[in-house]
Amino acid sequence: SADVVPQAPEDPLFGLMAAYRRDTDPNKVDLGIGAYRDNNAKPWVLPVVKKADEILRNDPNLNHEYLPIAGLADFTSASQKLVLGADSPAIKEKRVTSLQTISGTGAVHLGALFLSKFYRPNQQRTVYFSDPTWPNHFQIFSNVQLPYLTYPYFDKETRGLDFDGFINTLNNAAEGSIIVLHACAHNPTGVDPTQEQWKEIAKVIKERKLFPFFDTAYQGFASGDLARDGWAIRYFVEQGFELVIAQSYAKNFGLYGERAGCFHFVTSPTSDADSVTARVASQLAILQRSEISNPPAYGARIASTVLNNPELFAEWEANLREMSGRIIAMRKALRSKLEELGTPGTWNHITDQIGMFSFTGLTEKQVLKLREDSHIYMTKNGRISMAGLNTHNIDYFAKAVDKAVRE
Ligand code: PMP
């Protein structure tokens, strides 16, 4: 009977959102969930998404039939070009197989499930996550019974990358281990390796015969430049790795609830690429069919409309620059306000970190105090969603932080 089902804890992030919604204070600030907000703290429908929506709604041939198991072909092929670069040899050589998924989470899950079934069966295959990482990584890989460990990532002293710890752990990881890497705008820290550091990471992963698993949820959203944010993945592909990529369109298209994403498997150029790709695709199709049958159409149609039209694509890039630009401006403003106030500590990490989040270094006690005294909501690890800050609340926030740090 269901009597044996124990009570599970509430998801911390979605619990935080609910607490924020219940709070009736007019000055409340939501810095929890990673969703873009405009300067009035409102969700932003990208203008280019509105246009694509118009185009779709006026299409007399639009219907609600099932998509194929692998999803909308125009969407998955445009997704390959976006993540790997339009002239990627891996695409030309047909070394990539892609399936549309339930956003980035579904892509991570499909990748984890595929690896659990077909990657080094009956051999050691530990998964390594950065410490810290997006907490859902732990749950998704546990669900498919893959054992995991972590590699050092965030250096609490410098609030930057613990590069030596990272490399040292890779050097000591057992052959065949799966290394989950955030392609850009690391969640939750906002700390990314430099290109030189990525090269070193790739070198060790190759030497140690490890398997790269890229999670890319912020391409274009981080720096406003799609190629720059895609650099690490493209570099690894250039180095000839066999690897997988979980791609989300939640943030960069603002399509959070539409669940548009893509999973890519890239075979190495030395393999019998055609045959490997075909066999991998056939197995992924069976997994997809049994899990979701076929993916949801609407979000993929929106993204596909934009990705496949040069004019709309250029407009999307401008929308991306607007979002990333506002976030970068908020980073600068927050740092300078804290420095003006003389808030104890150093605050350069606010502008050094990139993407949606900043790992402020605030302690759990300070975080709870900010919630109680100032109605400011952030996760207990001191992570703030930069998008929740705007020209109306940044002074209030900086002053509240200053007070909490001094207490
Ligand atoms: N990976 C990381 C690192 C993320 O930050 C996110 C978004 N929070 C995702 C994957 C996937 O999100 P979604 O399923 O909404 O695309």
TrEMBL record:
GO BP annotations listed: aspartate biosynthetic process
Ranges of residues in domain Aminotransferase class I/classII large: 27-400
GO cellular component: cytosol
EC number(s) per entry: 2.6.1.1
Cofactor(s) needed for function: pyridoxal 5'-phosphate
Gene Ontology MF terms in the entry: L-aspartate:2-oxoglutarate aminotransferase activity; pyridoxal phosphate binding
Taxonomic superkingdom: Eukaryota
Keyword Transferase recorded: yes
Reactions mediated catalytically: L-aspartate + 2-oxoglutarate = oxaloacetate + L-glutamate
Enzyme's top EC category: transferase
Keywords from the named record: Aminotransferase, Pyridoxal phosphate, Transferase
Record Gene3D superfamilies: Aspartate Aminotransferase, domain 1 (3.90.1150.10), Type I PLP-dependent aspartate aminotransferase-like (Major domain) (3.40.640.10)
Note: In eukaryotes there are cytoplasmic, mitochondrial and chloroplastic isozymes.
Annotated family: Belongs to the class-I pyridoxal-phosphate-dependent aminotransferase family.
Subunit-level organization: Homodimer.
Protein's name in the database: Aspartate aminotransferase
